[in-house]
């Protein structure tokens, strides 16, 4: 029996629970991967949106300046407008007041405007981005946008010529007519990250809730789907549990789904049918064996009881002869039964030895005793016929065929051995009454009685041909009854083996 190993404490026993756990675990891994991808994609898109908003506000500041308007200090992005020849910033806001640019501009001033002005090439919305080091500050508040030590930031800037503005605008800005103004916008990375972080945080919470709900639904669906799918298996298990070796007549219902469960049900029914056939064969064999043992025992017991009841009128030599004959019959029957039992428990396989069937048939022909009645036993062979197998089992097979022929032959028994197309054909032909065609296979069954002259009334046990066929199958051969006009002809076919090297 197969031993059942110890069950893991953390692993559920139920197939439904294991499947639900496996499905939920797989879904969790997939959802975690999707969540990671969505998180990073949303973060990247949010950062891009934040930078786009900074760029949009920068272009709006440049547009306001070119139209003569001074931008307000309230701005979502830090900006500063500086001019050539001006110590303080022209305008600033969005957090640049932390550096007090009203006394001195923070970002570098542009060079003087080129005179004369270059030709106008139409609207130009281009700008430049480069890193700029901001100065350190002696004091800073916790809510300031810039650190105490300043730091390097990316800035967007574009230049505007003062001679392109109106005189009132130039006067209002306090710059010279030949000055050049530069608009700076500082790109704050933490601002973009704050925007992206806010969006991704909301997205992560939504994904987490959706993922948890999805895991519960997936586990529940997997659990109940497997539960429904395993209902036929449970029905098969319950019905199979009621089958016993003494009564294996139950059969499971095969669903018409054509799936693995239907195949399982078909296989179980086939196995139950083999079990039923084996049990019926065993019961029949036991009954036949008991019947065969009863006949010689009854004869022996009756002979001895009569002899003991009338000792003065008993022919004791005849009684002893009858007892000896019945005892020998019992001995032969017991030996055949034991031999069949050994054949049933051994693996069919040809042995490693090489046997010459021609030499074996010739030796048995010379040694076989033909004392009860005159018979002619001959062997016809043209060359050695080598086969793989056990020599003793081949001798038992051939002797059983000769015994069967000797019991039913009228005058002659002919053994023929031939090599044909990679096989060895051996036939044992007698000139007896023969076997009806409808009984050609039944005579190889154990304890089969025929109603004609080929019965076991001549001393056979009814197991010789069954043993012979089993031995033929063990050596990957066949034993059949070949139709003949006169008598019975048994044909043995075996795979031919190469001749030994010493021959």
Walkthrough of the structure:
InterPro entries: HAMP_dom, HATPase_C_sf, HATPase_dom, His_kinase_dom, HisK_dim/P_dom, HisK_dim/P_sf, Sig_transdc_His_kin-like_C, TCS_sensor_his_kinase. It comes from Streptomyces rhizosphaericus. This protein has 503 residues and is α+β, with helices and mostly antiparallel strands. It folds into three domains: 12-229, no CATH class; 260-343, Signal transduction histidine kinase, dimerisation/phosphotransfer (DHp) domain (Helix Hairpins); 349-495, Heat Shock Protein 90. 46% of the residues lie in helices and 15% in strands. It is built from nine helices and twelve strands. The protein has helices spanning 15-66, 167-173, 189-229, 231-241, 260-309, 316-345, 357-367, 391-408, 464-474; strands spanning 79-83, 91-93, 128-134, 151-161, 180-187, 354-356, 376-381, 386-388, 412-420, 423-430, 478-482, 489-495. The chain has a five-stranded antiparallel β-sheet. The protein has a five-stranded mixed β-sheet with strand order 7-9-10-12-11. A two-stranded antiparallel ribbon has the order 6-8. A hairpin with a 7-residue loop joins strand 1 (79-83) and strand 2. Helix 5 (260-309) packs antiparallel against helix 6 and helix 6 packs parallel to helix 9. The radius of gyration is 54 Å and the shape is rod-shaped. Mean pLDDT is 79; it is low at 1-5 and 452-457.
